[in-house]
Fold:
Amino acid sequence: MSTSRFLPAFPGRSAASPATAADNSILVGRDTVVARLRAAGCVFAEDEARILIESAPDPATLRAMVERRVAGLPLEHVVGWVDFCGLRIDVDPGVFVPRRRTELLARRAAALTAPGATVLDLGCGSGAIGVVVATLVAGVELYAVDVEPAAVECARRNLRPFGGRVYAGDLYEPLPARLRGRVDVLVANIPYVPTGEVGLLPPEARLHEPLVALDGGPDGLDVLRRVFAGAPDWLAPGGHLLVETGQAQAPVAWAVLADAGLDAVVVTDDELAATVVIGRR
Ligand SMILES: C[S@@+](CC[C@H](N)C(=O)[O-])C[C@H]1O[C@@H](n2cnc3c(N)ncnc32)[C@H](O)[C@@H]1O
Structure:
């Protein structure tokens, strides 16, 4: 393998600063990375190889990253970021990796947010939804909550540039009382996988994301019901609540929202396989 095919992947290296003999022993070429990933069962081996090579600061780190990926760690945890709505969001090990389908929820939340509005993200994980809303809408006052310490730390880092305040705890419990009745947009991608289906999730999720980020109880709606029950107290008059659900859960979620006194609609996106239930106080 020629080093010229490999070296440009690493910033600071060029033909004018050739690798030393010691470095040569640890060089890893793109084809080798693709083959290693493919042999391990990665479906998008070419794309993943590109991301790994672009993310690694040096050959030794690339080798270690490839080995972590081959061992089954989610790609996003290996490189430390995810592309979400075209934005690069930090994702730490042990923090739920934002899914492509959740882009529907994030974009709908942004579309319902007026400049300067107060936005609350419950079960924020990395804080990805808040980052999208604060990027697309000027001057939002952003609050976020998660029960997992790793997620809280990660979200604080991602939301710091937007002045976002991130609280640790159970749903509404850690929020300042002054927010009651003041939230214009309440967005929640909270766990909604039925307990009996958690075992069917891909190993990347089951083994590397916390159970509390996945398990939504017997019908998957346990946490969502608590979100719905509290929403009328925290939403401003005319404020919106947006949640992601599974497609089959949407009619139940719609009915629970209606019972809580909110006008509800269901929005779907077939390409993203995404369902969002939206309520208005
Ligand atoms: C499916 S993940 C979604 C994370 C993030 N909203 C996203 O879309 O990437 C659900 C998140 O809710 C958090 N969570 C679960 N139960 C919670 C609760 N009772 N209170 C606050 N956060 C909770 C989990 O820790 C996890 O980060």
